[in-house]
Automatic annotation (TrEMBL):
Pfam families documented for this protein: Prenyltransf
Protein name: Isoprenyl transferase
Organism: Paracoccus hibiscisoli
Root EC class: transferase
Function: Catalyzes the condensation of isopentenyl diphosphate (IPP) with allylic pyrophosphates generating different type of terpenoids.
Length: 245
């Protein structure tokens, strides 16, 4: 499929509605590298470079919230070499980006189960969250060791504890939402998956219940701000009814 190249990354059509919150399943790093005869980790490093570019393009494209899927609860099934390599990439990304992002107004947060992650990585995550907490230009949420089902189990446990303590009497959707890792975040308007797979792989099943979806064949390391701008243009043509007539 050929992608029309926008004249500029700001080329979101005027007068159309824009997604405020975009979530991305960044898939295809491994295939991108394998196609070139390179180790999969080369694809992951290229993928991390892409993240930087896409993050920087978001504010100009009218996106206030960007949530990206970096590592799923299922990704531990990969080889030790790949998993350790990915964790090293996350550490470096957070270390290097921390300074720049706090200066650029990006608020960075993480969702997912943290206790299984390396202690040093957990510390870096907590420190960048604290350092960028006052930023408002873009809300960047990174899902690491994230699984929607795992999040629902943890959230249900929290809700049960609140019920036992008498803080919640008849639980509502809002009460459960308040126990999720994403408490206080708006739901994604649009979920994009790269690499041609048309599944959601345990990403935000609760939050994306009414999201629009875009599946693009482009592999994540090839996904540019122009691709994003084109997808955002198309979003404006959608009729979101939320069950209404
Ligand atoms: C996405 O790329 C990154 C992670 C899941 C960590 P993949 O590594 O899944 O790439 P493919 O799907 O094998 O090409
Ligand atoms: C989803 O991609 C997870 C991330 C992008 C982090 P996967 O490559 O792990 O998903 P499956 O295995 O194809 O469903
Ligand atoms: Mg994949």
């Amino acid at each position: 499929m050929a992608w029309p190249r926008g004249a500029a990354t700001k080329a979101v059509a005027e007068g159309t509605s824009r997604p405020r919150h975009v979530a991305v399943i960044m898939d295809g790093n491994g295939r991108w590298a394998t196609e070139r005869g390179w180790p999969r980790l080369v694809g992951h490093r290229r993928g991390a470079e892409r993240v930087k570019q896409i993050v920087r393009a978001c504010p100009d494209l009218g996106v206030d919230w960007l949530t990206i899927y970096a590592f799923s609860t299922e990704n531990w099934k990969r080889s030790t070499e790949e998993v350790l390599g990915l964790m090293k990439i996350f550490r470096r990304y957070i270390q290097r980006e921390a300074e720049e992002m706090s200066g650029e107004g990006v608020r960075m947060r993480f969702i997912g189960e943290r206790s299984r992650l390396d202690r040093k990585l957990q510390e870096l995550m907590a420190s960048i969250e604290a350092r960028t907490a006052g930023n408002t230009r873009l809300n960047l949420t990174v899902a690491i060791n994230y699984g929607g089902r795992d999040e629902l189990v943890r959230a249900s446990t929290r809700l049960a504890e609140r019920i036992v303590r008498g803080e919640v009497t008849s639980p509502s959707e809002a009460d459960l939402a308040d126990c999720m890792d994403t408490a206080g975040h708006p739901d994604p308007d649009l979920v994009i998956r790269t690499s041609g797979e048309t599944r959601t792989s345990n990403f935000l099943p609760w939050q994306a219940a009414y999201s629009e979806y875009e599946f693009t064949p482009t592999l994540w390391p090839d996904f540019t701000p122009d691709h994003l701008a084109t997808i955002l243009d198309r979003f404006g043509l959608r009729d979101r009814r939320f069950g209404g007539a």
